[in-house]
Amino acid sequence: MTTTLSHTAVAAPRRRLQRDQVIGLLMVALGLFTAWAFGLGSAGRSHSQFTFNPVNTSGTVPWHLGALTLPTRVSCLLAGALIVAGGVEILWRRPRRALMARFGGGAVLFFLAILLWASRTHGPSQVSFVNLTSVLVGGVAPAVVLIYGSLSGVLCERAGVVNIAIEGQFLAGAFLGSLIDSVTHNFFFATLGGVVVGAGIGAILAFFALRYQSDQIIAGVVLASLVISLGSYLNLQVLTPYPQYNAGSPAPNLTIPLLAKIPVLGPVLFDENGYFYLAVVLVLLISFGLFRTRWGLRVRAVGEHPKAAASVGIDVIRTRYVNVILGGVVAGVGGVALFAWQGQFQPGITSGYGYIALAGLIFGRWRPSGVVVAALLFGMSVYLANNLQTYQVPVSTSILLMFPYVVTIFVVSGLIGRVRAPAADGIPYQRD
Predict the structure, then answer these.
(1) Which residue of 203, 332, 420, 421 could cross-link 425, Cys pair, CB 3.0 to 4.6 Å?
(2) How far is CA 412 from CA 152, 235, 273, 285, 391, in A?
(3) Left, alpha or beta for 257 (phi > 0: left; psi -120 to 50: alpha)?
(4) Nearest Cα residue to 276 out of 372, 367, 363
């Protein structure tokens, strides 16, 4: 009898929820919370106003678009209903494609509901409108930095090496970029500095991880900690006594004629600095390279089954070296992009963005396109955390600032469902 029961127990293991089911349930819960907290939590007479005033323009003013006034309760209830409907659709149809796009759409509706509720009339805020253009421009800035970090992770982990040192590469790129820009007043040279320092840190990580087969997580954390400590030291010893070496300014915008005049989207997509456009190009190039070229096939083979790749003549160690250094280059440029957004170097300028970028990598399933959705989600959460206090939201500032990191913990812990990393990710390779 005991044997029969044990066989039955083995034959019927507990069934885990699939990734699409987890995301569907999460969206249903998010939609219900949106309807309850922001819809029913608003007075029936309250209204919210969206404006579309141009911001951050470089001489090109978009075509005028009038303000949009919406009833707060109805709008938030509708947003909640749409999020719930999206979650039910995922649970019912179990789609395999565009899952992250659906979740991203639900997140956008959730963020809009927060803004509508925060700026409502008869509420605590003295500001009775939300400039949607300003919100989007402000959210895109940190998202661009996160895209660089996540793309760096894609290049490294698709080849089988975990790069935890992205935070350090960001900081090194920001420090050297600030120094070079302050001296030369040229962001091209600052970018070259980010390329060199990012590649250098990537080469050190690859050397320890591949030559000596060190634990990649520990090596990356040590490198990041070393660079962060060194950045604080150099800030005290160089930038503080000689402020002329930290007198940089935000990167100028590169306006695309006519397209920059489109309301809302013009300032967001076509009136940005060069690092925004470079990020778009890198997403397209890396996506095409990984999934449409022989080089990408070799990289993915090395990341999935290095011994099989070596058996057909692929140099596994060399491929990993190249990809880790390329990933360092991308992260170093991301550090310069971070400085170009902030305008000045500070020891805590990275604010954990390197680790958030790794969460975006997992959220995006190690794909450049998925990374973009994740970066936009995290970038918007960073912007809201920093700006919702303007609307006197009755929540502690400390709790608001925790929001992006809580989202990161949820993603890394598997709340959005189990995702499969490249099979050989983080596993040292030994030649036979």
Answers:
(1) 421
(2) 17, 32, 31, 27, 30
(3) beta
(4) 372
Contact 199, 332 (CB under 8 A): yes
- The token pair at 21 is 């089911």
Query: What pLDDT score does 261 carry?
Result: 83
- Concatenating the DSSP letter of every residue in 140-199 gives HHHHHHHHHHHHHHHHHHTTT----THHHHHHHHHHHHHHHHHHH--HHHHHHHHHHHHH
Contact 255, 340 (CB under 8 A): no
User: What does the alpha-carbon distance between residue 330 and residue 377 come to, in Å, rounded to a whole number?
Assistant: 21
What is the count of structural domains for the chain?
Answer: 2
Range of the domain at 121: 16-128
Instruction: Assess whether 51 and 188 both reside in one domain.
Output: no
Find tokens 């997403």 and name the residue. Answer: 283
Domain-located, residue 11 = no
Is the domain of 161 the same as that of 247? Answer: yes
Pick from 92, 107, 128: which residue ends a domain? 128
Residue 267 scores a pLDDT above 50? yes
Instruction: Please give the Cα distance from 159 to 155 (Å, whole number).
Output: 7
Query: What's the pLDDT at 415?
Result: 55
Residues 117 and 222 in one domain: no
Chain mean pLDDT for the chain: 86
Residue 8 in this model has a pLDDT that exceeds 50: no
Which residue among 367, 389, 416 closes a domain? 367
Report how far residue 210's alpha carbon sits from residue 431's, in angstroms, rounded to the nearest whole number. 11
Based on the fold, state whether residues 178 and 104 are members of the same structural domain. no
The dihedral over CA atoms of 327, 159, 293, 371, expressed in degrees to the nearest 10, equals -60
Q: Which amino acid is at 381?
A: S
- Give the C-alpha separation, 177 to 196, whole Å: 11
Residue pair 31/78 in contact (Cβ under 8 Å)? The answer is no
361 and 254 fall within a common domain: yes
Among 178, 162, 260, residue whose Cα is nearest residue 219: 162
More confident call, 163 vs 104 = 163
Same domain, 79 and 213: no
Residue 419 covered by a domain: no
Q: Which of 104, 163, 134, 90 is nearest to 326 (CA)?
A: 163
Is 388 part of a structural domain of the chain?
no
Q: What is the pTM of this model?
A: 0.88
For residues 79 and 221, membership in a common domain is answered with: no
CA distances from 259 to 251, 265, 340, 388 (A): 20, 9, 23, 30
| Inter-CA distances, 328 with 152, 206, 234, 264, Å | 6, 10, 21, 34
